[in-house]
Every structure is written in structure tokens, then in C-alpha cells.
């Protein structure tokens, strides 16, 4: 029996034993989203109930509410906005990472670096962009140019988030 037939049989068996719950686009879920946002050195949110989280995924900008379809998203450098139960929101700039939406309205975000957006100065970011552009266009080594291009990508995302 070839592997395709085995996969089809397993899929049919799984469909019978686990009914699929359907949800329409942009349905508003009455319950909350349980958020964990962790960095290697700090946990910013630990299983805290929030209303919505907006992320910058490689596949595009996403707003995640309770009962979101399970998925794993690679994050690009960008803004993560957390809308809390109190009605306030907090914004963080993450260097990248992964967001995992699990059944039961659970969202886990893991990133290497992340800081509150208010910790950044638009002027300092502009100055760093100018320096990175000089290095990227200069006559340095290929490694220096590659590092400068990565730095530019992150700084330009940060600059866009600060506007």
C-alpha cells in the first residue's frame, strides 16, 4: 500500500472521530485570549487574559482573537500590539520569533529580543539607519555588509512602528 493511500485512510478515520468545528471569517468570540509572551531573559505576559493581539507575521499582519484557528506563525521584526481586558493597549517591538495559536484560545509568543515601543527614540533610530546604510554601501567585507543589511531591515521596521 502506498503512503498516499495510507494518508487518505488516516485522514478519513480522523475526520470521523474528531468532528470539525467551523467558524466564519471575523466571528467575534465572547471569551478571552490567554497570552504568554516570553523572551529568553524575561516573561512579559504569563497566561494572561487579553482581548486581542496584533502581530507582524511573515505571512502578513494578523489580528488574533479568542477561538482563532490554530496556527504557527514566524514573526518578522515588527510591532506586537496587545489589547488588554481593561481597554488599554501595549505595544512591543520584537526582533522576530514565533507565535503559536493553540486550541482553547491560547497564544504563545517567543522572541529573542523585545522592548516596549516607548523605549525607542525616533531620532536615534534615524541615526542608526544612516550609519547602517553607510556600512552596507561601503567597501567593507561581505560579512559587514550582510550584517548591516540585516540591521537595516530591523531598524526600518522599527522606524515604521514609531510613526
From TrEMBL:
GO terms for cellular component: mitochondrial inner membrane; proton-transporting ATP synthase complex. InterPro entries: ATP_synth_F1_dsu/esu, ATP_synth_F1_dsu/esu_N, ATPD_C_fung, ATPsynth_dsu/esu_N. It is found in: Mitochondrion inner membrane. GO terms for molecular function: proton-transporting ATP synthase activity, rotational mechanism. It comes from Friedmanniomyces endolithicus. HAMAP family: ATP_synth_epsil_bac. Its main location: mitochondrion. Residues 120-160 form the F1F0-ATP synthase subunit delta C-terminal domain. It comes from the Eukaryota. Residues 33-106 form the ATP synthase F1 complex delta/epsilon subunit N-terminal domain. This is ATP synthase subunit delta, mitochondrial. Keywords: ATP synthesis, CF(1), Hydrogen ion transport, Ion transport, Membrane, Mitochondrion, Mitochondrion inner membrane, Transit peptide, Transport. Belongs to the ATPase epsilon chain family.
Amino acid at each position: 500500500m502506498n503512503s498516499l493511500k495510507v494518508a487518505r485512510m488516516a485522514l478519513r478515520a480522523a475526520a470521523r472521530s474528531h468532528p470539525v468545528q467551523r467558524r466564519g471569517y471575523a466571528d467575534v468570540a465572547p471569551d478571552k485570549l490567554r497570552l504568554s509572551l516570553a523572551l529568553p531573559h524575561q516573561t512579559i505576559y504569563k497566561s494572561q487574559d487579553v482581548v486581542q493581539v496584533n502581530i507582524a507575521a511573515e505571512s502578513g499582519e494578523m489580528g488574533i482573537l479568542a477561538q482563532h484557528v490554530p496556527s504557527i506563525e514566524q514573526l518578522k521584526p515588527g510591532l506586537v500590539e496587545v489589547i488588554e481586558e481593561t481597554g488599554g493597549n501595549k505595544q512591543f517591538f520584537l526582533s522576530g520569533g514565533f507565535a503559536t495559536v493553540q486550541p482553547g484560545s491560547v497564544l504563545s509568543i517567543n522572541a529573542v529580543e523585545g522592548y516596549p515601543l516607548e523605549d525607542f527614540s525616533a531620532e536615534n533610530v534615524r541615526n542608526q539607519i544612516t550609519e547602517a546604510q553607510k556600512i552596507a554601501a561601503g567597501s567593507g567585507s561581505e560579512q559587514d555588509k550582510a550584517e548591516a543589511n540585516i540591521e537595516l531591515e530591523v531598524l526600518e521596521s522599527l522606524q515604521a512602528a514609531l510613526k
